[in-house]
Amino acid sequence: MEDKTAILIDGGFYRKRTLKLFGNKTAEDRANEIEKYCSFHIKDGKDGKDRSRHLYRVFYYDCPPLETNIFHPLTARTVNLKKSETFVWTNAFFAALIKKRKFALRLGRLSATGNEYRLNLDAVKRLCAKKISVDELTEKDFTITTRQKGVDMRIGIDIVHLAYKRLVTQIILIAGDSDFVPAIKLARR
Q: Residue 47 pLDDT more than 70?
């Protein structure tokens, strides 16, 4: 039986990690980076021998960007997130991903509550260490906190579905938390 591999990517984790490791990229470049990264996993065996596996599909899980207005505590103004760089970049990124062969975009949603600007941890540390004063804070010292809904559940359901239907012989999960361990153990069994 030919090895069939599904790659499941927690998009929120992937984007944060690659931003930290590789810096900012255009939406198209980030989509090409993911495609190349997935290709690397398909071509290289665990044992170091080059063996090609059949790619079943790459499932990319994320949420569409916020389209709401949020009050910014530093500027005391309401910010229209639909006009933000993040909104434009994320939609361009999703559009680039869905053009990729064998890529499936699985979208959850962002919670309607709890979305607000918060002071970054680095800024809090600088304030507490008295390296800066409150008057020296900038807009970049704040980030929007969001809560994803339905993303982890979709990943778990897809893991179990792929295993029970025997659609693949291997699942590669790119995620940053242990919430998926029960689904992965069930799929392995």
A: no
In this structure, what token pair is assigned to residue 156? 């778990």
Q: What is the pLDDT of residues 127-181, one digit of tens each?
A: 999 999 999 999 889 988 888 888 999 999 999 999 999 999 999 999 998 888 8
Please indicate, yes or no, if residue 133 is contained in any of the structural domains: no
Total domains present in the chain: 1
Helix spans in the chain (H): 11-22, 27-43, 85-98, 121-128, 151-164, 181-188
Q: What is the DSSP string of 73-116?
A: TTTTEEEEGGGSHHHHHHHHHHHHHHTSTTEEEEE-EE-SSS-E
Q: CA 131, CA 13: separation in Å to the nearest integer?
A: 31
- Residue 111: C-alpha distances to residues 68, 92, 164 (Å): 11, 22, 31
